[in-house]
């Protein structure tokens, strides 16, 4: 775990023990019947948009994933109707597989086009049950989405890596 | 002060366009750290679109690049995966892209807007490049950079997410991209007749940036790949083989034309020979020249700074249209221009710097609107830049927008000396008002002001004052009646610059 993550973990009163997120291989603790590569080979927009898939790949649209994403961002989108369009406009990563306390999550990063350092979202999707959590960095502050547990918060912060000290907010 | 070089510019661009990840794609199919689309990587030579691929992207349920074509292998990018996985390849592509945008900038003569305020934006080269990256040149339906300038900032194009072109221009201002410097060498004899067919090379910082032969007008092709501040060396081919250094000087601004005059050439050569076909000449005389003299033209019809040749001799021999006046006359002229113009101006007035220089030289005012001379219009650096150039203290319009960031370096490049670094026999100055008349005082900030301040020490009918866009009898750091101070009122003195 990085020093930043350790410091953040301490700042939220969480022990460093027992919740380290490991990058998992697809075979580790895979939920039965789930094709992990479906998540790790897909960019976020490919999972969210029915016609979003790049190149010649089979359609990667995932209705369950897309619904979790919409539900996660509803508290923001209900006050800001254009938010969904903006946050999904920017670049996204492919999924990264992580395990926390034995559960597999797939993590994606996405941000608002041309202001990635100002409006930036990281989401983690628990494969076994489709629960999604996230950390939105916007207006120089974090918004935790989906009621993440303390160890999940630490992973989100560590992986997103944006704080007011390393952004343009300082 | 500059925000940095091309690498710093790209770092800032990556932060906004890519966040922190390099292997990224957005839903429109823009890829990587700098979010390139198919047309950009096609223009740069990395990608070859499929025959049936529209250059404007696929439009299914929405605009999207699908990248069905082939990767050329340039810089090792044999596929999109390879491109996306490599920081190095993406950075190389971005530098090529900046160079391409620089060409666009010059092709459309957008450099003429540099140093001007357009639509509330102080225009810089890097700002234009960033705006070109965001919106391109644009067209009628989708206004871009050309519309922004032609409408004086009124047509401020936005991208799909509402990012304004002007905001990008501001955000990315003041980087030294170093990709747009251009120069050409002209070689003439002492009668100013061109010397054609002369083989010469130019080195910048020890690297060859040009190798070629002068044309019938004695000119080389335009070359670049050097930056302001680099030492340029010019070599000519010797008869017995090899090259000989004939001139060495620092590039102070661009574009520039470097004139070489060889007094020996005329005596030793019959120049009718040069009218023959290229490549068939014998230029024995050229190689007997002891040294060539250099004249460095930045702006036609303006006097040049002193340039010395390799032997240290003053080398400005081409006739300058306006020979530089003595220093005392320049100080007089500087004060007169500044004090007179503190009576004119208004907040937000768009003042074209170079036009204003011409006006001042003709005895006219910078701005027609009258004002109280003690009131600032927020254009201190502009007034000082104009006055310094019009009075002949500097031979180019100083670069930069915020005096606290740019003025020190700009003045240093123009041969000014900072009295803070070189105090005189009486020791360090206690107050900007102790500076000699004509000194340029540059201030930093202790509050959140973005600009700082700049002013010139003047003598107004026997009363010591400072002038910029306003006239004051106390320095920016001082309060009347509270004594001398180099720091105060949210400012501190960064430099007190003088020129002999």
Measured between the Cα atoms of the first and last residue of chain B, the distance is 24 Å
Q: Give the class of chain B from helix and strand content and strand pairing.
A: alpha+beta
The number of helical segments of chain B is 12
Greatest interface (CB-CB under 8 A), with counts per chain? A-B, 26 and 26 residues
- Reading the helices and strands of chain A in chain order gives HEHHHHEEEEEH
**What is the tally of helical segments of chain A?**
6
Which ranges of chain A are low-confidence, i.e. pLDDT below 50, for 5 or more consecutive residues? 1-20, 26-30
| CATH topological fold name of chain A | Inhibitor of vertebrate lysozyme, Ivy
The global form of chain A is globular
General form of chain B: globular
The description of the largest β-sheet of chain A is: 6 strands, antiparallel
Mean pLDDT of chain B: 78
Helicity level of chain A: 25-40%
Report strand % of chain B: 15-25%
Q: Total domains of chain A, how many?
A: 1
Radius of gyration of chain A: 16 Å
Widest sheet: strand ordering of chain A? 1-2-3-4-5-6
Q: Report strand % of chain A.
A: 15-25%
CATH superfamily of chain A, by name, is Inhibitor of vertebrate lysozyme
Question: Could you describe the 3D structure shown?
Answer:
The complex is a heterodimer of chains A (170) and B (500). Chain A has 170 residues and is α+β, with helices and mostly antiparallel strands. Helices cover 29% and strands 21% of the residues of chain A. Chain A has a single domain (3-160), classed as 3-Layer(aba) Sandwich (Inhibitor of vertebrate lysozyme, Ivy). Chain A has helices at 3-11, 36-40, 44-48, 63-77, 83-87, 150-160; strands spanning 22-23, 96-100, 103-111, 120-126, 132-138, 141-145. Chain A has a six-stranded antiparallel sheet, sandwiched between helices. In chain A, helix 1 (3-11) packs antiparallel against helix 6. Mean pLDDT of chain A is 82; it is low at 1-20 and 26-30. Chain B has 500 residues and is of the alpha+beta class. In chain B, a hairpin with a 3-residue loop joins strand 2 and strand 3 (63-64). At the A-B interface, loops of A face helix 1 of B.
């Amino acid at each position: 775990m990085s020093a930043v993550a350790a410091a953040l973990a301490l700042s939220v009163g969480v022990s460093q023990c027992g919740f380290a997120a490991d990058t998992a291989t697809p075979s580790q603790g895979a939920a039965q019947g789930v094709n992990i590569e479906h998540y790790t080979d897909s960019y976020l927009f490919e999972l969210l948009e029915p016609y979003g898939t790049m190149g010649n790949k089979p359609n990667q649209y995932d209705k369950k994933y897309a619904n979790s994403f919409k539900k996660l961002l509803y508290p923001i989108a209900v006050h800001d109707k254009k938010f969904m369009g903006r946050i999904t406009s920017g670049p996204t990563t492919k999924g990264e597989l992580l395990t926390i306390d034995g559960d597999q999550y797939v993590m994606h990063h996405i941000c608002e086009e041309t202001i990635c350092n100002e409006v930036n979202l990281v989401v983690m999707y628990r494969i076994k049950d489709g629960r999604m959590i996230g950390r939105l960095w916007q207006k120089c502050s974090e918004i935790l989405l989906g009621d993440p547990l303390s160890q999940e918060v630490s992973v989100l912060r560590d992986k997103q890596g944006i704080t007011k000290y390393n952004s343009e907010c300082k | 002060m500059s925000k940095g070089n091309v690498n710093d510019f790209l770092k800032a661009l990556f932060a906004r366009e890519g966040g922190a990840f390099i292997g990224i794609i957005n839903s429109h199919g823009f890829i990587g750290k700098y979010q390139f689309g198919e047309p950009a990587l096609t223009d740069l030579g990395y990608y070859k679109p499929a025959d049936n691929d529209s250059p404007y992207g696929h439009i299914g349920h929405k605009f999207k690049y699908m990248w069905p074509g082939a990767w050329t292998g340039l810089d090792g990018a044999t596929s999109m995966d390879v491109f996306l996985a490599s920081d190095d390849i993406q950075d190389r592509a971005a530098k090529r892209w900046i160079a391409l945008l620089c060409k666009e900038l010059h092709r459309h003569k957008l450099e003429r807007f540099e140093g001007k305020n357009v639509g509330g934006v102080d225009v810089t080269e890097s700002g234009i490049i960033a705006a070109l990256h965001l919106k391109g040149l644009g067209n009628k339906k989708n206004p871009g950079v050309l519309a922004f300038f032609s409408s004086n900032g009124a047509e401020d194009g936005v991208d799909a997410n509402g990012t304004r072109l002007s905001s990008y221009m501001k955000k990315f201002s003041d980087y030294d991209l170093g990709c747009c410097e251009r120069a050409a060498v002209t070689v003439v004899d002492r009668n100013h007749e061109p010397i054609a067919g002369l083989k010469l090379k130019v080195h910048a910082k020890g690297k060859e940036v040009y190798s070629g032969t002068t044309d019938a007008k004695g000119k080389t092709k335009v070359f670049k790949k050097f930056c302001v501040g680099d030492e340029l060396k010019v070599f000519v081919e010797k008869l017995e083989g090899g090259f000989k250094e004939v001139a060495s000087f620092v590039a102070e601004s661009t574009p520039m034309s470097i004139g070489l005059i060889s007094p020996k050439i005329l005596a030793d050569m019959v120049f009718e020979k040069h009218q023959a076909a290229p490549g068939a000449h014998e230029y024995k005389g050229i190689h007997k020249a002891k040294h060539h003299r250099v004249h460095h033209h930045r702006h036609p019809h303006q006097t040049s700074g002193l340039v010395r040749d390799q032997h240290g001799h003053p080398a400005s021999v081409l006739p300058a249209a306006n020979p530089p006046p003595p220093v005392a006359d320049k100080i007089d002229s500087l004060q007169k221009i500044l004090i007179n113009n503190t009576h004119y101006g208004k907040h937000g007035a768009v003042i074209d710097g170079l036009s204003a220089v011409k006006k001042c030289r003709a005895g006219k005012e910078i701005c027609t609107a009258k004002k109280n001379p003690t009131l600032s219009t927020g254009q201190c650096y502009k007034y000082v830049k104009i006055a310094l150039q019009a009075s002949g203290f500097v031979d180019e319009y100083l670069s930069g927008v915020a005096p606290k960031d740019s003025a020190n370096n700009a003045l240093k490049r123009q041969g000014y000396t900072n009295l803070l670094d070189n105090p005189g026999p009486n020791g360090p100055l206690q107050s900007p008002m102790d500076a000699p008349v004509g000194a340029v005082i540059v201030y930093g900030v202790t509050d959140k002001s973005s600009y700082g301040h700049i002013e010139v020490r003047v003598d107004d009918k026997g009363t010591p004052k400072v002038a910029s866009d306003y006239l004051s009898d106390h320095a920016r750091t001082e309060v009347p009646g509270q004594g001398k101070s180099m720091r105060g009122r949210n400012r501190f003195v960064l430099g007190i610059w003088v020129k002999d």
